[in-house]
Design a protein that fits this description.
Number of helices: 2
Order of helices and strands: HEHEEEEE
Shape: elongated
Number of strands: 6
Distance between the termini: 42 Å
Radius of gyration: 18 Å
Largest sheet: 3 strands, mixed
Strand order of the largest sheet: 2-1-6
Helix content: 25-40%
Length: 115
């Protein structure tokens, strides 16, 4: 399961952001996962639950937002419907994936000490 390595990289990045902002804890993590990313959201949640123990994310809630695949013509930019031929109906050029393969840390809610 590569979801564990994804969560480990995510935790490294979260730790860096938390240190940079002087956070004492993370209360919420929002991740955007493209439908073509190869990441299974339920496995990602399970990996997060296991990896977060005794870290700055120990009490953090994980929210996963799914991103659908979107295609467009590589030449003229016209939107192309998925599920059919991935070629432009207007100019015949092959489609280009413009959204749906990403894995993004979209939002962190950090707890910081009052200064």
């Amino acid at each position: 399961m590569h979801e564990y390595s994804i969560v480990e990289a995510l935790m490294t990045h979260i730790g860096e952001q938390a240190r940079a902002h002087g956070a004492t804890a993370v209360s919420r993590v929002v991740v955007r996962i493209g439908e073509l990313s190869g990441v299974e959201p339920d496995l990602l949640r399970t990996a997060f639950e296991l990896v977060r123990e005794r870290t700055i994310c120990d009490a953090a809630a994980l929210e996963v937002e799914r991103i659908g695949a979107r295609w467009a013509c590589g030449d003229c930019g016209r939107a192309i419907q998925g599920g059919g031929p991935l070629r432009c109906g207007a100019c015949g050029a092959p489609a280009r994936l413009i959204e749906g393969d990403e894995i993004l840390l979209a939002q962190l809610e950090l707890e910081v000490a009052n200064v």
